[in-house]
Amino acid sequence: MPKIKSTVTVIGLGYVGLPLACLISQKGYKTYGLDLKEDSIKKINQKKSPFKDELIAKILPKIDLKATSDPSVLKESDFVIICVPTPVNERHLPVFKPLTSAIESVLENFKKGVTVVVESTINPGVCEEVVLPLFEKKNLKVGKDFFLAHCPERVNPGDPKWNVSNINRCVGGVTDKCLQKSLEFYRSILDATVTPMKSIKEAEATKTIENAFRDVNIAFVNELAKSFDRMGIDLKDVIQGASTKPFAFMAHYPGCGVGGHCIPVDPYYLIEKARRVGFEHDFLKLARRINTGMPRYAVKVLIRELNEIKKAINGTRVGVLGVSYKANVDDNRDAPFYEIKKELLANKAKVEIFDPFIPKDSTVKSLDELLKKSEVLLLVTNHDEFKKVTPKLAKKYGIKLIVDGRNFLPKEDFLKAGIRYKGIGR
Fold first, then answer.
1. Which residues, other chains included, contact 91 with Cβ-Cβ below 8 Å and sequence gap of 6+?
2. Intra-chain end-to-end CA distance of the chain, in Å
3. What is the pLDDT of residues 243-264, one digit of tens each?
4. Which of its termini does the chain have fewer beta carbons within 10 Å around, N or C?
């Protein structure tokens, strides 16, 4: 292990901050993790991950990472990396309180010469318009008393290939010295390219457009799913066909909703910032509206398919497969499951739920128990465990219909077995 060179505190030990803190510690920095959740702090100090992550579970016992709720550790920190949530409120407006609270902790425990890097996703201008003024109120001069930069986080939970250590990053600083200090730090911990941006505002913009790009493309195929469903065309087959073109096409797939803390949130940051400078992002707003409506659409498909077999949703025992927003993780932030559950209950369905990663939201303890209690299935999350739902198993439990919200199960196998199957756009 390299000689300890500096002290780093990562504020926020969630899905972004904890992997980053582990990496920083691995690279020989004295590392603190600052968080408000005492349960998480206790687990981390016991060398256990507070959420499912195989890589973190392997790394934690081998490193000297100290988790704490005591902000006084900031007094000895040369670098402070902020990885707190940046949510939106019920009106889809940015909520900066977690970020400003983190900055206030830095100011209350200020160390001259500290480099503060915001990794939390923010709209262009936040570092200069929201963060910087908090320092200036204390008569602290950027580039002299402290250094401020933005390096938008990039993580992909559950991905066996891409992790916090090997994903390319972009960095922007308020001043040239801010940029150079942050570049040097990230290049010392990452096995990936770190690209300097011309301004901190450009760095802020990269993350919002990355996720807005995905949101727009997902909305496009979700709209196609509704259209192709009426035409009797299997959209999944069409996308696979289009993917044979070796350029100018990038496959995105429809589904019962978009979840996580990025795609359903970040476009609103860009929408609101643009509105404040006199521009309306009609395209981004439409994409959000389409994707937000997909959980309700999935339930409508279920109701329609039930009607085809002369059943009403009222009183039907619906088994919901999955809670988390993506496969094989225990992250339920902004998961479409919750809107789907709300719609099912509003239509008086009898709902049973199973997610092997989120037992607290499950009503049963096993897949077999769910199947035993269900007449029809609605797959919400494509966990590997749900591959066990074969035509043979479905027949054993008398499952009459499967609505596959992720187009995950083998459609033709179920149809051949005489089980009604309907996907999103197929």
1. none
2. 53
3. 999 999 999 999 999 999 889 9
4. N
Phi, psi (degrees; rounded to nearest 5) at 219 = -60, -40
Assign domain 7-198 to a CATH class: alpha beta
Contact by Cβ (8 Å): 105, 70: no
Task: Locate the domains of the chain by residue range.
Answer: 7-198, 293-423
**Cβ-proximal residues to 313 (8 Å cutoff; 6+ apart), any chain:** 302, 303, 306, 344, 347, 348, 349
- In CATH terms, the superfamily for domain 293-423 is NAD(P)-binding Rossmann-like Domain (3.40.50.720)
Residue-wise burial string across 367-401, b where 16 or more C-beta atoms lie within 10 A, e elsewhere: beebbebbbbbbbbbbbebbeebebeebeebebbb
- Structure tokens, 87: 């949510």
CB atoms within 10 A of CB 161: 7
Residue 2 DSSP label: P
Task: State which H helix or E strand residue 421 sits in.
Answer: strand 420-423
Closest CA to 326 of 384, 367, 284: 384
Identify whether 262 is a catalytic site residue: yes
d(CA 94, CA 272): 8
CA atoms within 13 A on the CB side of 48: 7
Kindly tell me if the per-residue pLDDT of 5 is higher than 90.
no
* Antiparallel, parallel or unpaired: β 376-379 and 401-404: parallel
Residues in the chain: 426
Provide Rg for the chain, Cα atoms: 24
Which helix (H) or strand (E) segment holds residue 323: the answer is: none
Yes or no: say if 143 and 173 are a contact pair by the CB < 8 Å rule: no
Using the predicted structure, report yes or no on whether residue 3 has a pLDDT greater than 60: no
- Tell me the sheet residues that pair with 378: 320, 403
Q: Which of 83, 127, 151, 262 is catalytic?
A: 262
Task: Identify the burial level of 288 via C-beta atoms within 10 angstroms of its C-beta, where 0-12 means exposed, 13-18 middle and 19 or more buried.
Answer: buried
Residue 402, Ramachandran bin (φ over 0: left; ψ between -120 and 50: alpha; else beta): beta
pTM comes to: 0.92
Q: What is the mean pLDDT of residues 361-388?
A: 98
Angle CA 18–22–28, to nearest 5: 145
